[in-house]
Amino acid sequence: MTKLTLGAHPHMLGFEQLERLLERTAKSGNDGYPPYNIEQTSDDSYRITLAVAGFSDEDLSITVEDRQLVIRGRQSEDDSDRVFLHRGIAARQFQRSFVLADGVEVREAAMENGLLHVDLRLSRPETVVQTIQIKKG
C-alpha cells in the first residue's frame, strides 16, 4: 500500500513546504517543559503563555524562523560562589516551537509574574478573484 503524503496529493499543489514544516515540528521533541497555554483572545488574535519562573528577560529569546515561532530560554550559570544544600529548582535550558499559519504575525511579548505572554494576530487578506485569459494558439 502506497502512503499518500500531503505534497503528493493531486489536488494539493505547492504544499510540500508545509509538509516539511509539519515533519520538522513533530521531530522537535518538546518534552513538556516549560508548560504553556494557548488561548484565543478575539476572532483574529491569540496568546501563548509559558510558565518561565526563574528566567529573566535577558535569559529568553523569541524568533520567527521559517513560519515557526521559536522561544528559547537559557539561564546564566552564576553559581560559582553559592553552596547548595539541596537543589530542587533546575536551571535548565529549553526550546519551544509553534508552527504559524500564513498571515499570523507576532505582535508583542511581555513578562508578568513569571509568565511569558506572546501575542499573535491573524491578518486576513482580502479575497482576490483573478480571471485568467486563455491564449489562442
TrEMBL record:
Residues 27-137 form the SHSP domain. PROSITE patterns: SHSP (PS01031). InterPro entries: A-crystallin/Hsp20_dom, ACD_IbpA/B, HSP20-like_chaperone. Keywords: Stress response. The keyword RNA-binding does not apply. Belongs to the small heat shock protein (HSP20) family. This is Molecular chaperone IbpA, HSP20 family. It comes from Roseivivax sediminis.
